[in-house]
Specification:
heterotrimer, A alpha+beta (about 375), B mainly alpha (about 260), C mainly alpha (about 300), A: alpha+beta, D-Maltodextrin-Binding Protein, domain 2, eight-stranded mixed β-sheet, two-stranded parallel ribbon, 14 helices, C: about 300 residues, mainly alpha, about 0% strand
């Protein structure tokens, strides 16, 4: 045989080995999942915290997980905020009972601080490479799970003319009409709301957004349009807060819950579209680490990500799923039009921290919606 | 005996107005489930939920346990303080006010640190012992109200004379407490029992973080993202709790025997 | 009678030390319970107030308490708690007296007491929502007044989302608390005293001033303090009603301990410690006032 013939055989051999290796690797990947599922089944249960069933369709996600893997899921304190989740890990360091959370779902800024405090352990899911780089920790300690943008949730029975942009909210016909969904001195959602308003008014200038946002709310308050009540679906329906500034997924879920009584419209503003990312992490003291890892695999699988999309949250692998055409058309149709999200801005950690600092410290002084 | 207080009916009427009108507002809103008009749909949804009965039953049992433990703890203590250790009264009263200003979430995180499954009193190790922990934490929460009620009741009777009379008839301390003092502070103990019951039924933070299937977390679950069901639930809970209190009142009356001395 | 009294005092010729130790035993269960379930779990709070996020000892948190926003929040908390405590105490006392000793039919008393039991814990989001649904801008009563009498509550200056609106809402659970706790005290006002006073020619006012109020004063004061501490520690109602516009200490505390963003829990612990201190101070004031009144009795 000639040298080239030998090389051809070598190349062919290499190809075969590579193919077999890939197949074996794939099988091993599947095998890994099966092994993980078995180990998790031995542990018997998973403890989650701060996952309201109506938030991003978590109810369905949890039920799907329970059915698929036959595990019990302990749902602690759905009312908890990100701070509570961190405290729960700290308080349960030595506790292996069902009160210790295995996994947490917290705001972006809590990821790095939890890593610094040694409260979380690293784990890279099998679909790790498809998660955008700026939404995950390079060592695998925390990873973005979903995002949404701030939108106006409007009670269309009371408000005849739906506002389309931030500047509209200052108009006369929205007197006593506009509320935030949280306390801007403490709630991530509310602070981002102020930031988004500022971004719109400052023409996209991130540096000036916080101050502009505070000024906007001061004007809103002076015009008598701002209602200092924390907006919830009940106060929206009752009429005390007919317009609420909220994450789009919450607003859309509420629209479904109310079933047309009253009619709710969800509008993404034309300018100042701010996206908020939440991150997942596994507790360093998790009593059921394998169940926790299985849960992560489930969340980042196509099935899990699409379940979040059903709950109106944009899963972090959204672009990847759209590219591989895995998103059913009917699901896409239920969301607000895609071009509304084209302008979405993802504030970096730095920008978020700066905004948080400015807004929480100056809200009382500048906006002066203080009850004396 | 009871003089006709000049403004009696007026005060009652104003009180009734203040308390019932907000309930009416909630009730009216809960009927608005359907767009077309008033309906009891929200109530049907709430009552059909099996978790409603399960969690309410659990919380009721826990409430009764809390009342028993609370009475056993507070009545002898308040009695001793009044009778023998009046100098300790300021300290005891300060301690009983603490649960009002310490956030429940701080307390429960403290319990988790102290009584978790790896500590020397592993109360979170099993379901029954966690129930015990939860009962004790409820007793702590209800302490201010129970103590103040019993203390007020003890002041209204002549503890010293009653004790001396009973002692001179040869009664032991247990007999004095159970058969002389307790019946005389029946009204106060009942007040404390009502307050405790209401607190336990509605309590959320501790039950949720200790992972027990109580009514408070269930209320929160329904109330978080719904509009009409929480109002219906509030009215139903109000009605059922009122009924339970009526039952406690009736059983208290039967257990207490003849009306206490001096309280006319 | 006298001989048995003598007998009693004769037999209790026990040496004082053992009588005192007997009495201490009586309160041991209470203190053990308080230690296990109140004091020790909150020691983390007390220690945490003097630590920073890394665990080092520091006084920074305590110093931070003197920022103008935080001092203002303590001031508002004190004002709201004081207003609702005094209002609740007065109105609650009148209501309790009317039902128990005011000559009303028999069924009024148990109905009022059981209702108070339920209402005393009707707080938080359901209460705030009930008041919004009644006296809010789109509330039932507001709408009714406009339709029936053409009277616009809000144009006349009323606003539920204000200091007085919050105090009004707080009274929903303060008044029942007062009613329940003062009921046995009112029961203890013996009719013989009233009759004796009348026989001596006292008017109703003099009866109250010289007989009834001095007897009730310690209980009234103690219960008002309880109402004050109750309102001081309340958060859920205020948060649900005036969340982002009212700056009370509990809301600030929760923002630090639970919040999505701030999370300086050591400052939160310092805030809680400040609250405990204020409660301790009011307790001391109450003891002082009560001590003066008790010179009247026995």
């Amino acid at each position: 045989m000639t040298g080239s013939g030998n090389r051809a055989w070598a190349l062919a051999g290499l190809a075969v080995v590579a193919a077999v290796g890939l197949a074996v690797g794939q099988a091993a990947g599947q095998g890994n999942l099966t092994q993980l599922a078995a180990a998790a089944k031995q542990e018997g249960q998973l403890t989650v915290i701060a996952l309201p069933r109506d938030w991003c369709g978590y109810g369905e996600v949890i039920d799907g997980f329970k059915k698929k893997y036959g595990l019990k899921v302990n749902e602690l304190n759905p009312d908890a905020g990100s701070g509570d989740e961190i405290e729960a890990i700290k308080a349960n360091k030595d506790n292996k009972g069902p009160q210790a959370p295995d996994v947490i779902d917290v705001g972006l800024s809590f990821g790095p601080s939890a890593k610094k405090d040694g409260l979380i352990q690293p784990y890279k899911v099998s679909t790790w490479s498809t998660i955008p780089n700026d939404a995950k920790d390079s060592e695998g300690y925390w990873y973005g799970d979903y995002y949404g943008v701030l939108a106006f949730q409007v009670n269309a029975d009371i408000v005849k003319q739906t506002p389309q942009d931030w500047a509209d909210l200052l108009k006369d016909n929205y007197k006593n009409g506009v509320a935030l969904a949280g306390d801007p001195r403490a709630s991530n959602q509310a602070i981002q709301g102020v930031y988004a308003a500022g971004l719109a008014l400052a023409g996209g200038n991130a540096e000036k957004a916080s101050e502009a946002g505070l000024k906007f709310f001061a004007d809103l308050n002076k015009a008598g349009n701002f209602v200092p009540v924390i907006g919830k679906v009940a106060s929206l329906a009752q009429g005390a807060t007919p317009i609420i500034i909220r994450w789009d997924y919450n607003a859309l879920a509420d629209r479904d819950t109310l079933k047309g009584n009253p009619k709710v419209e969800v509008v993404v503003p034309k300018n100042g579209v701010v996206a908020g990312v939440y991150v997942q992490a596994i507790s360093a003291y998790a009593p059921h680490p394998n169940a926790a890892k299985l849960w992560m695999e489930h969340l980042y699988s196509d099935e899990g990500q699409l379940a979040w999309l059903k709950g109106y949250c944009h899963p972090i692998r959204f672009q990847d799923l759209v590219k591989s055409q895995k998103v059913p058309a009917e699901l896409l149709a239920k969301l607000p039009p895609a071009d509304a999200y084209a302008k979405a801005v993802f504030p970096t950690l730095d920008q978020q921290n700066k905004a948080k600092d400015v807004i929480t410290k100056q809200w009382d002084a500048v906006v002066g919606a203080n009850v004396k | 005996m009871k003089r006709k207080m000049p403004g009696g009916w007026l005060v009652l009427l104003l009180g009734a107005l203040y308390f019932l009108v907000p309930l009416l507002g909630t009730f009216e809103f809960s009927l608005r489930y359907r767009r077309e008009g008033y309906s009891v749909e929200a109530y049907r949804i709430v009552l059909a939920d099996p978790r409603f009965q399960a969690t309410f039953g659990y919380s009721t049992i826990l409430a009764l346990c809390t009342i028993v433990v609370g009475v056993l703890l507070v009545v002898p203590t308040a009695y001793w303080i009044q009778l023998k250790l009046p100098k300790l009264r300021p300290l005891v009263e300060f301690v009983t006010l603490l649960p009002l200003v310490i956030p429940a979430i701080v307390l429960v995180f403290g319990y988790l640190r102290m009584y978790n499954s790896s500590s020397w009193i592993p109360l979170t190790g099993s379901e029954r012992t966690t129930d015990l922990l939860l009962t004790c934490s409820y007793v702590a929460l209800a302490l201010p109200y129970m103590y103040r009620a019993v203390d007020t009741g003890l002041r209204a009777i002549d503890v010293r004379t009653l004790t001396e009379a009973a002692q001179s008839l040869g009664a032991s301390w247990a007999t004095i407490l159970a058969r002389v003092i307790l019946p005389n502070v029946r009204v106060a103990v009942l007040s404390g029992a009502f307050l405790t019951f209401a607190i336990v039924i509605g309590e959320f933070t501790m039950a949720s973080l200790l992972d027990r299937p109580a009514f408070g977390p269930y209320l929160q679950l329904i109330g978080a993202n719904r509009a009409y069901e929480p109002s219906a639930l509030a009215i139903i809970t109000f009605a059922i709790t009122w009924a339970c209190m009526g039952l406690i009142q009736l059983s208290g009356r039967r257990a207490g025997g003849p009306p206490p001395v001096g309280a006319r | 009678m006298p001989s048995s009294v003598l007998r009693t005092t004769a037999t209790t010729g026990l040496p004082p030390p053992s009588r005192i130790s007997w009495a201490w035993v009586g309160v041991v269960p209470f203190f053990v319970f308080a230690l296990m379930f109140l004091i020790l779990p909150t020691s983390f709070l007390a220690i945490g107030a003097f630590q920073d996020a890394a665990g080092r000892l520091t006084l920074q948190n305590v110093l931070d308490l003197f920022q103008p926003t935080i001092l203002a929040s303590y001031a508002i908390s004190l004002k709201v708690s004081g207003a609702s405590a005094i209002g609740g105490a007065l109105l609650g006392f009148f209501l309790a007296y009317a039902a128990i000793a005011g000559g009303l039919p028999q069924w009024v008393r148990p109905t009022l007491l059981t209702f108070s039991g339920v209402a005393s814990n009707f707080a938080g989001v359901p209460l705030a929502f009930a008041f919004l649904a009644t006296l809010g801008r789109t509330g039932l009563v507001t709408a009714f007044l406009i339709q029936a009498f053409g009277f616009n509550l809000y144009r006349a200056g009323f606003n539920l989302l204000s200091f007085w609106g919050l105090a009004l809402t707080y009274m929903y659970f303060q008044i029942p608390l007062m009613v329940l706790i003062m009921a046995p005290a009112i029961d203890g006002l013996r009719r013989e005293w009233r009759e004796a006073a009348q026989n001596l020619g006292a008017s109703a006012w003099e009866y109250w001033r010289y007989v009834a109020l001095p007897v009730l004063w310690p209980s009234l004061l103690g219960t008002t303090l309880l109402l004050f501490a109750n309102a001081f520690g309340a958060i859920a109602t205020a948060y649900a009603l005036t969340g982002s516009s009212l700056n009370i200490v509990t809301i600030l505390l929760y923002a630090q301990i639970r919040g999505d963003v701030l999370h300086n829990q050591n400052l939160g612990y310092a805030l809680a410690l400040g609250m405990i201190l204020i409660t301790g101070l009011s307790n001391t004031a109450y003891i002082g006032l009560r001590g003066r009144a008790e010179r009247w009795l026995r």
